[in-house]
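Table S2 (text version). Query chain:
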Amino acid sequence: MPANATIELNLSEDQIHIDPGGTATLQVQVVNGSNQPDTIGLEVEGLDYEWVAIPVPSVTLDPGARRTEKILLKVPRRSESTAGAYPFVVRARSLETGDTAVAPVTLMVEPFSALSVEIYPRRGVCTYWRPVTEFEVTVHNLGNTPLDVRLYASDTDDIGVYTFDREVLNLQAGGSASVMLSAEPSRRAMIGRSQLASFTVTARCVDNGYVAAHTQGQLYTRPLLSPMTLSLVGIFALMLAAWAFTRPKPVEVLEFSVEPSNIQQGGTAILRWHVTNASEISITPDIGVVKENAGSRQVVPSQTTTYRLVARGRGGVQESEVVLTVQPAPEPPPPAIVSFKAEPAQVTKGEPVILSWQVQNATKLLLSPVGELDPLLNSVRDTPAVTTTYTLVAINTAGRKVEKSVTVKVRDPNALEVLEFRAEPSVITAGGNVVLKWRAQAASRVTIDNGVGEVSPQGEATVSPTQDTTYTLTATNDLGQVVTKSVKVTVTSTPPVSTPPSINPSQPGN
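Corresponding structure-token output:
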């Protein structure tokens, strides 16, 4: 540490790699290099505040003391969390002198890739006179890195020929692009039967074939004439012409589907429809009358639901049904409090206490009497005025809860109390000496029996009991309140067995 430095800041690493949606921990060591106690605050500069959590934002250190805290980093898994390097700094600032220490760090956000593809409408119709139908294909880059995407379309029976106006798309992170897909039958028939072909549209990453998305469409092809129509056309040509001129077009439900068809409780699905020649369309339950002949709605049913579409027009009435299966959501794991402690467990009034804990599977934390806590935190500082029982309650997403309590004893410095009364040693041989040591708080008169008499509130005295003796210290204040404390000295005829004193590493000189 430099001679004039008052704060030293050390980091566990200078480069952190993190996958979006994951978390990382940066260990920060702060050293008070001054000759005075100091309170030092921790700050992070250069990162989105939603990515950073500092459980203990400030620490109080004695001269030359050091302490290690942690900074939690969490990058959301979304396309806005662009892959790459994010340099930032950790700053330690003295709240007493204003001195600072800065350490640079680089956060490396790893890339992830995901695609989705949509097609509209779901079904296209090709006739002899209008052999080509068009679909709009939209591709979404759901990852956090740019992708080059190639489009493919095909059906298993080679009924259709599919052509994109662009086959390769360059999509930025979170970006979307739409292209037109032209579809036509591979064989244009004047006479035959109508065919319905299901085709697959695939969007695949050029550089990584495992990143792909698929959607389904339908190509409905109609020939000019069916065999039966051809056999009757000569006989009923005039009748068919007059009837066709006045006949209202039949109502057709080209598509009525729900995707996905199976969801968990609380999930959403998309209901799609495509109807022709209808003057009124209604969908039950929940949606009611819709004005669009083709469209979609998001639905969030709480139970398995059958949706029914009714289309009415001059050409008649058509109905269609789809079933959306709703499965119960899985029961989340129960919350657990691994540990909950207070350090120190006994303080003098006005002194702070650090409450720390470890919990699992909890999305909400309540600490009585402090209040609601950030689930990312694992410690909090409080200054109780009286002896207090703290209760920590951990709650999961299903509302299940578990709780644990600790009690912090608060000592009033103005209350009458015997802080210390001991005998050294407590076992002697006949003729040996014992030193009585005591310390009383807020006492106006202190006495010790068995010949010692009135003494000062703090001190020591040497006694030489000839037999087992219990010494009782009595402390009295100006209000007449009395407290007592006793120690026993054992007198033996043989020397007591001595044991080496225990070494307290916290005492100076050890």
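Notes on Table S2: The helical segments are 227-233, 237-246. The longest helix spans residues 237-246.
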